[in-house]
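Two proteins were folded this term; both appear here.
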Amino acid sequence: MSATTPSCPRCGYDLSGQAATWNNPDSVVCPLTGTCSECGLNVDWSAAHDPLRTLRSWSFEHAPAAGPWRALRAAARALFPPLLWRGLRMEHPIRPARLIGLVASMLLLLHCVTAGTAAGLAYLGDPYATPAGIIPAATEALWPYARAALGSGPILPVAAYGLGLWTLLMCAAFLVLGDSFKLAKVRRAHLARALAYSTVGWILLVVVLTPIVMVAALESTYGYRPISLSSSFQQLIGPGQAFPALFGAWFLWFATFWWNVTHTYLRLRHGAAILFLLLLTSGLAMLVMLVLTDLVLSSGLAPM
């Protein structure tokens, strides 16, 4: 899409023919909006002719210099979906390489936080706090994803990482069950953009969850409290309460995120009904996969 060849931001249909009808003796005014004859989207002609005009300074995709600070600013917007999708519009060019870089940088952040938490649990979990604790701490930092320290298995419940699967299933449900998605002829590149920012939001939520679970694990197992916590907050983040409470907060964010994708970003009709069907279908698919995985692991069929 360029300033000289206006295209529909949702389906990519060439709108230069409509623009050409303005240059004739019967044309009295230049309209501000139009309708794409291919997908029915109401098009803002100024944005169609100059999509770069409304770019936001925080956009990691479109910044001249994509540094880590700008990546964090863009990622933080993913935690507030209305702010993200009001600023990031379909007219803005999709930069796949930048999206991959944004997700990769957030995965690196997640690894560093997970490794640091595992190392901290391994070292502070030593009841004698001996210098020898540095060795298992360093080992945990190298590969913290299969730890058995504190007798609690992985640092976070496996389902916390499995929630990332829901994002993939959500996009798959769009392609398989989204009749409105097909009728609107939405380009798959828009789904790729939504997938990238949804993944970034999930990563940041896991980054926040990991140190909280570390504090709860140290307190419940060794009576060690690295920071002062109120009793009510300590009960909230206890081993039995941390994940259910934060899963509720995550689901609220997840539903809000995809509501803004369908309603604000893609501007699909019947957005609420579409969102309900997609959440129901993808959620059931995720539960089935988790149950099957648990059955395989519990039956000993998984490879050792």
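Next, the second protein.
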Amino acid sequence: MTFGYPADVTAFSALIIDADEAASSSIRSALAPFGFELTATHDDSEAMSLAKTATPDIIFLRVELPHVSGFSVCNKLRRADETKYIPLVLYASDVSAEIFDQHRKLKTHADDYLVLPFRHGELVAAVRGLMQLPEPGRVQTTLATRADQRRTVRAFEPDRDRAAVQALDIGFETAREFIVHRSRDRLELVAVPLATPCSKRFPLDLDADPWTDGYVAIDEGSVCGFIATSLGSWSSRLTIHHLYVARAHRRRGMGRALVEHVIAAGRAAGAVTAWAETSNRNYPGVQAYERLGFVLCGFDLSLYSGTPAEGEFAVYLARDLREPERGRS
């Protein structure tokens, strides 16, 4: 059975946790051109229930709530399996930058932080750094499916699929990137806003890495995604060499379907971890991996030296395959 949003229903959903109607209205106004359906509450218990059952695409959480601190609610959201990978923006009118900086260092930190009053452009930039947004006024309907037979994952067939994979639109936009803070005996990876949002497209060279197993995602007969992996014989590590989803098919479950497919195959073959590398500029990609249960595990400041990606650095993520299934459903 297939079900989805009718054409006149919005493609994205957001939860606002705030008792201040003026602040909630400002968020609504800023996101209206992008087709968001927004739900608001100021009650922390109701907020947790809504977040767990409705699984919004993003959560906006006010620190100053009537009966509880938003920091406490953030901690609960980050510890609950159903909500820990939902992008979360924490905002406040009476919290110093130093307090926010301290909160960023916690394991249960938010994905971004804003100080009221904020301009619409600030909010939209923060959201763009966490999820793929359409151009204002050109909202595309996103289908939510449980068993859509038009969408499948199958093995990559070089003669049949190579041209289609190389033609995928794999560009992205980001308003944030990772940088490294250095001290005498410490290196710290920190996400920071870009002065100007940027667009990027990674080169897609299928022969660049020694992958062994490839799969494509198919939607209505067309290739819309690709993943390639290999399994280390000594480390039992499942390396993801390529993972791409065409721009028009993002936020429709294609990336999750590809990743979960190779993880299931990897587990069956004895893999104990899954591992991926991306650029520090690919902040949206890192967020997507984290929603799939991956965690940041390292970086390499010199890997791209002498390459077309000179000036960027490699960021590594891993997922323990011995743990229970994680990530948003």
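DSSP finds eight helices and 14 strands in the chain. Confidence is low (pLDDT under 50) at residues 1-10, 138-149, 325-329. These notes refer to the second protein only.
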